[in-house]
Amino acid sequence: MPRLTSLLTPKTVVRAHCDVPCGIYDPASALLGAKTVARMVELIGQIPEDGRTVGDRNKFIRCVMVKEQHAEQVKREIQVIWSDYFKPEHLEKFPQIHELTWTILKLAGRNKQNVDAEAAAQLIAKVEEFSAIFWETKK
Fold it and tell me: Domains (ranges, CATH) in the chain?
C-alpha cells in the first residue's frame, strides 16, 4: 500500500514568483541574464569556425545552452514584473512600458534564435531602460 505522503506529493513541480502581493520584485536578475547572453555570444565568437576539436564543440554547445537559458530567464523575469508589479498609475506615468516589454521579449527570442552581438547589446540596453523605469516607480 502506498504511503499517504506519496499520494499527496504532486507529480509536477511548478516554480513561479509568488502570486501573493509580496512586493518583492527586482529586475537585477533580468539584467544579469541579458549580460550573460552577451557574454556567451562573445565566447561563441572566439571559438574557431572549423570547431575541429571536441573541446571546441563542447564549448560551443555549452555556450549556446547557457545563452538560451538566460534569454529565457530575461523573458520570464520581465514578464513577471510587467504583469504582476506594474499598476495603472505606473502605466500613466510610463506609457512606453508595454512596447518596451514587447521589445525585450522579442529581443530575448531573437537572441535565443541567433548568435548576434548587436541583438545582445540591444537586449542589455532595453533591460537597463526597463530597470530604470522600474526603480523610478519605487520613488
Answer: 24-137 (1.20.120.400)
pLDDT at site 51 = 76
Instruction: Indicate yes or no: pTM above 0.90.
Output: no
Inter-residue long-range contacts of 62-70, CB under 8 Å, 24+ positions, other chains counted: 64/40, 64/115, 66/36, 66/40, 67/36, 67/37, 67/40, 67/41, 67/111, 67/112, 67/115, 68/112, 70/32, 70/33, 70/34, 70/36, 70/37, 70/40
Mean pLDDT of the chain: 90
Q: CB within 8 A of 106, min separation 6: which ones? A: none
